[in-house]
C-alpha cells in the first residue's frame, strides 16, 4: 500500500489495492515491444499515488449497489488518463518538474520524447479499455461513459484547465477565475470519476446524477485548495512533489488570492457542500463521504 492511502478507512485501502491490480493487468507488459515505451507507461501509472479517481468510481458504484468487476474498466480508464496528464504536466514546456510521487518524473527517467509518447499512448489506452463492452452491458450506457471521459479530458475539461493555468502565470486572477480554472483542470476528471461509477452501476436517475456532479465539483475544488495549502506547508518528501513550486513560479493559488485562513475556511465549506449533495444516499454514501473528507485532510 502506498503511503498516500494510509489515512483511508480499511475498505477503501483494499479498493486502492484492487485498482493497482487492475491497472497492472490493463497495461502492456514491459517486456513487449516497443519495450521502452511500455516501460515508460507502466512507470507513469504504477509508481504509487493516491488512486483517488478510481476510488471515487468504486465508491459511487458501491453507493448505487454495484461492487462488481464492471467498475474496474472505468476505474482504470480515469486513473490512466490522470497518469498521462501528469506525465505531460511535468514536461519542461509545461510545469518543468523533476519529482512526482516521490520519484523522478517520467521525462527525467525516459527522456522527453518517450515521455510524450507514453502520455499519448496512455490516453489512447484509457478509451480502449472503457470501450470494451462486457457481455450484457448496455451499449448506450457505455457510450455515455465514453462521452463523459472525453468531455473531462478536452478543451472544456482537463486540457482547457491546463491552458488557463499556462496563461495565468504572473497574473492576478479573481477567485471566480481561479475556481473556473481548477474546475476544468482538476475538477473535471474528479467529477467524471463519480459519474462513471454511477453510470457503470446502471444509474439513469437524472436528479441523482446531478447531485453526484455537485459532489464531484465540491470534492475537486477541495482537492485543489488542499493542494495549494500543501504547496506552502508541505514537505516534498511527504507530498511526493516539489513543495513551494507554485509560489516560485508565480502561479495564482487560493492562498495567494484569498489568504491561508480563508483557504482553510473554503476547504471546510466545500466538504460540507459535498456531504450535503450526497445526503439522500444515507449510509450507502459512506465511502463517498470518507473520500470527501480525505481530499481535504490529506497530508496532515
Q: Helices, strands, pairings?
A:
Elements: H1 10-26, H2 35-46, H3 52-63, H4 72-89, E1 99-100, E2 103-104, H5 106-110, H6 112-131, H7 139-153, H8 158-168, H9 175-200, H10 206-233, H11 236-239, H12 245-248, H13 254-258, H14 260-277, H15 286-297
Antiparallel strand pairs: 1-2
Helix pairs in contact: 1-3, 1-4, 2-6, 3-4, 3-9, 3-15, 4-6, 4-9, 7-9, 8-9, 9-10, 10-14, 10-15, 14-15
Short description:
The chain is mainly α and 300 residues long. 69% of the residues lie in helices and 1% in strands.
Radius of gyration over all CA atoms, rounded: 18 Å
Task: Give the low-pLDDT segments.
Answer: 1-6
Main sheet properties: 2 strands, antiparallel
- Major beta sheet, strand line-up: 1-2
Order of helices and strands: HHHHEEHHHHHHHHHHH
Q: Quick one: overall form?
A: globular
Based on secondary structure, the structural category is mainly alpha
What is the typical, i.e. mean, pLDDT?
91
Q: Using DSSP, what is the number of strands?
A: 2
Give the count of helical stretches.
15
- What is the strand content? under 5%
Q: Helical content, roughly?
A: 55-70%
N→C terminal distance: 18 Å
Amino acid at each position: 500500500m502506498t503511503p498516500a492511502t494510509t489515512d483511508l478507512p480499511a475498505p477503501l485501502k483494499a479498493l486502492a489495492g484492487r485498482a493497482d491490480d487492475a491497472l497492472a493487468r490493463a497495461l502492456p507488459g514491459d517486456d513487449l515491444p516497443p519495450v521502452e515505451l511500455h516501460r515508460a507507461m507502466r512507470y507513469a501509472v504504477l509508481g504509487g499515488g493516491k488512486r483517488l479517481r478510481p476510488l471515487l468510481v468504486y465508491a459511487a458504484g458501491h453507493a448505487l449497489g454495484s461492487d462488481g468487476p464492471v467498475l474496474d474498466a472505468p476505474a482504470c480508464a480515469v486513473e490512466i488518463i490522470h497518469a498521462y496528464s501528469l506525465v505531460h504536466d511535468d514536461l519542461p514546456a509545461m510545469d518543468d518538474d523533476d519529482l512526482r510521487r516521490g520519484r523522478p518524473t517520467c521525462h527525467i527517467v525516459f527522456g522527453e520524447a518517450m515521455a510524450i509518447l507514453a502520455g499519448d499512448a496512455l490516453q489512447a489506452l484509457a478509451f480502449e479499455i472503457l470501450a470494451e463492452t462486457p457481455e450484457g452491458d448496455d451499449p448506450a450506457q457505455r457510450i455515455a461513459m465514453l462521452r463523459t471521459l472525453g468531455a473531462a479530458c478536452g478543451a472544456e475539461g482537463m486540457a482547457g484547465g491546463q491552458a488557463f493555468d499556462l496563461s495565468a502565470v504572473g497574473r492576478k486572477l479573481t477567485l471566480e477565475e481561479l475556481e473556473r480554472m481548477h474546475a476544468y483542470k482538476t475538477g473535471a476528471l474528479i467529477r467524471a470519476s463519480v459519474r462513471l461509477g454511477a453510470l457503470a452501476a446502471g444509474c439513469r436517475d437524472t436528479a441523482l446524477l446531478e447531485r453526484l456532479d455537485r459532489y464531484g465539483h465540491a470534492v475537486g475544488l477541495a482537492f485543489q485548495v488542499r493542494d495549494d495549502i500543501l504547496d506552502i506547508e508541505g514537505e516534498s518528501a511527504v507530498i511526493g512533489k516539489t513543495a513551494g513550486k507554485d509560489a516560485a513560479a508565480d502561479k495564482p493559488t487560493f492562498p495567494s488570492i484569498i489568504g491561508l485562513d480563508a483557504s482553510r475556511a473554503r476547504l471546510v465549506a466545500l466538504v460540507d457542500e459535498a456531504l450535503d449533495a450526497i445526503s439522500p444516499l444515507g449510509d450507502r454514501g459512506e465511502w463517498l463521504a470518507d473520500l470527501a473528507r480525505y481530499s481535504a485532510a490529506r497530508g496532515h
